[in-house]
Design goal:
- This is Phospho-2-dehydro-3-deoxyheptonate aldolase.
- Residues 56-354 form the DAHP synthetase I/KDSA domain.
- InterPro entries: Aldolase_TIM, DAHP1/KDSA, DAHP_synth_1.
- The chain is built from ten helices and twelve strands.
- The chain is an alpha/beta fold and 374 residues long.
- An eight-stranded parallel barrel has the order 3-4-5-6-7-10-11-12, surrounded by seven helices. A two-stranded antiparallel ribbon has the order 1-2.
- α9 (292-304) links the parallel β11 (276-279) and β12 (310-316).
- α9 (292-304) runs parallel beside α10 (347-368).
- 43% of the residues are buried.
C-alpha cells in the first residue's frame, strides 16, 4: 500500500511517537460521499419503515407478533451478487410479510479473532491494497441500491467513523461478541438512530450483553468526526431500542428452551425487557452451517409453543452453500455467490427455513389469540 504522506521516521525508536506508523492517506469526508451518492426517496422510505417495524417487534408492540429475521451473507465481497441475493429475498419478504419482518444482513466489516480479510470497506479488492476510500464508496452505493429496491438492511458497527458514511441507510445494527464489552461501542450505539443488538460474549456469557443494553440507554460523550470530517466530541441521548443476541459460545449453545428461560430470568432480574434474538450461526451452530436449520427448527417449535420472548433470529445465508478461500489469482478466481468468510446455507435451504419460521409465528399467534391480519 502506498501512502500520500509517508512517515520517514517509521522504525526509528528514537522518536517519541509514530515510529510504528508507515504513513497516512486522506479520507473522503462523509458529507462529500453522501453528496456524491445521495439517499433516494425510495431508500429513505424503506429505511424508516424498517426501523419503525423493527422497533415495534423488539419492544413487543407489533400487533401481528411477527418475527424479526436478519438474514443474508456472512459478509459481502461482491456487490453484484448481493443485489442478486436481495432480489431473491424480496420475494420471500413479500410472501411472509404477515409473519416475518425480513431485513437483509449486509455486513461489510469483519472483526477478526486473529487476522484475515477485514471486509469490503477495508480491502475492497481483496488483495491487500486497502483502498478504504473505494470501499466506502462501494459500500454506500450498495446500501443505497439495496434500500432503494425496498429491502431494509442490517450491519455490524465496528468504529465511530464509518457510521457517518452509512448510518442513514441502516435499519438495524449489531455489536459483535468481541466488542460487546467495549465502552467505545456502547457509546456509539447510544447515539445511533436505529435499534442495535448486542451479542453475548465469545465464551457464551450473557452478562456482558445485558450490561451493554443497560449502559446504552443512557447519554454518553465520545470522540468521533463530523460530516465535514472534523474531529469532534459527540453527545448522545441514549438508545432504548437495544436487545440481546444469543449466539452461543465456547461453553456451548444457548438457543434451546432452557437457555431461553435462563436468559429471560437474567433480563428480568435486571429489570429489562425480555426481548431476545437468536443467532442460528456461530456458537449455536458449532460453526457448521448445516446446523443452522436445526437451530431455526428449534426456534420455530418454541414459537409454536407460544414463546413471546424470542422476537428475532439471525441467519447466515447466501445464493450458494458453504464458503471458499480466496485463490492465488484473487477475486477473478472466486466462485459466484459463495461466502469468503463463514459458511452459509444456500437459497433453497433458506426458503425452507423461512417457511418453517413463518409457520411457527402463525402457531404462536393461534396460541396467544392474536389476529395475524391486524
Amino acid at each position: 500500500m502506498s501512502f500520500y504522506a509517508e512517515n520517514k521516521g517509521a522504525g526509528n525508536r528514537s522518536e517519541s511517537e509514530n515510529w510504528r506508523i508507515k504513513g497516512v492517506n486522506p479520507l473522503t469526508p462523509p458529507d462529500l460521499l453522501q453528496s456524491e451518492i445521495p439517499q433516494t426517496p425510495e431508500s429513505k422510505a424503506t429505511v424508516l419503515q424498517g426501523r419503525e417495524e423493527a422497533v415495534s417487534i423488539i419492544t413487543g408492540t407489533d400487533e401481528k407478533k411477527r418475527l424479526l429475521v436478519v438474514i443474508g451473507p456472512c459478509s459481502i465481497h461482491d456487490p453484484d451478487a448481493a443485489l442478486a441475493y436481495c432480489d431473491l429475498l424480496l420475494g420471500a419478504k413479500e410472501k411472509y410479510k404477515d409473519e416475518l419482518l425480513i431485513v437483509m444482513r449486509s455486513y461489510l466489516e469483519k472483526p477478526r479473532t486473529t487476522v484475515g480479510w477485514k471486509g469490503l470497506i477495508n480491502d475492497p479488492d481483496i488483495d491487500g491494497s486497502f483502498k478504504i476510500n473505494k470501499g466506502l464508496r462501494l459500500a454506500r452505493q450498495l446500501f443505497v441500491d439495496l434500500t432503494s429496491k425496498g429491502m431494509p438492511i442490517a450491519t455490524e458497527v465496528l468504529d465511530t467513523i464509518s457510521p457517518q458514511f452509512l448510518a442513514d441507510v441502516l435499519s438495524v445494527g449489531a455489536i459483535g461478541a468481541r466488542t460487546t464489552e467495549s465502552q467505545l461501542h456502547r457509546e456509539l450505539a447510544s447515539g445511533l438512530s436505529f435499534p442495535v443488538g448486542f451479542k453475548n460474549g465469545t465464551d457464551g456469557s450473557l452478562g456482558v450483553a445485558i450490561d451493554a443494553i443497560g449502559a446504552v440507554k443512557h447519554p454518553h460523550h465520545f470522540l468521533s468526526v463530523t460530516k465535514p470530517g472534523v474531529v469532534a466530541i459527540v453527545g448522545t441521548t441514549g438508545n432504548e431500542d437495544c436487545f440481546v443476541i444469543l449466539r452461543g459460545g465456547t461453553k456451548g449453545t444457548n438457543y434451546d428452551a432452557e437457555s431461553i428461560k435462563e436468559a429471560k430470568a437474567s433480563l428480568e432480574k435486571k429489570g429489562m425487557r425480555q426481548s431476545l434474538m437468536v443467532d442460528c450461526s456461530h456458537g449455536n451452530s458449532n460453526k457448521d452451517h448445516n446446523n443452522q436449520p436445526k437451530v431455526a427448527a428449534s426456534i420455530a417449535e418454541q414459537l409454536a409453543n407460544g414463546e413471546e420472548a424470542i422476537m428475532g433470529v439471525m441467519i447466515e445465508s447466501n445464493i450458494n452453500e458453504g464458503n471458499q478461500k480466496v485463490p492465488a489469482e484473487g477475486k477473478a478466481g472466486l466462485k459466484y455467490g459463495v461466502s469468503i468468510t463463514d459458511a452459509c446455507i444456500n437459497w433453497e435451504t433458506t426458503e425452507a427455513v423461512l417457511a418453517q419460521l413463518a409457520e411457527g409465528v402463525k402457531k404462536r399467534r393461534s396460541v396467544l389469540g392474536v389476529n395475524g391480519t391486524a
